[in-house]
Amino acid sequence: QALLALESDEDHIMTVPSLTVKECAKLRKFVRERIKDDGIDDVDGCPDFQVNISEQKLGRILGKRGVQALWDLPQRLESTATRDSFSRVGVFIRMYQRE
Question: How many angstroms separate the CA atoms of 50 and 31, rounded?
């Protein structure tokens, strides 16, 4: 599904609920407590609202259910994917907000 949407000229919106409202709030709080007001991303030059996080710390914030929901996202977005189809090189949280 995801690959078809990327290759299509039509607009595609995929909604894949994964985290609860409470889990999302916990992640936003975690990022807000750690971002620097003057931090600029060295890749896109935009304000840096990204925080690297270990899998262990993510588990402490979200609990087992929340982490499992994130790990299951590739399979939920691409039905032919397996758990081993995607390698994890690290975990980061990026927060976007309206200007």
Answer: 7
Structure tokens at 84: 């081993």
Region class of 41: left (phi > 0), else alpha (psi between -120 and 50), else beta? beta
CA angle 43, 45, 47 (to 5 degrees): 110
Q: Say if residue 82's pLDDT is above 60.
A: yes
Assessment of whether the complete model's pTM goes beyond 0.85: no
Token readout for 51 is 């925080």
- The one-letter amino acid code at 91 reads V
d(CA 51, CA 49): 7
Alpha helices in 1-99 (DSSP H): 2-7, 21-32, 55-71, 73-77
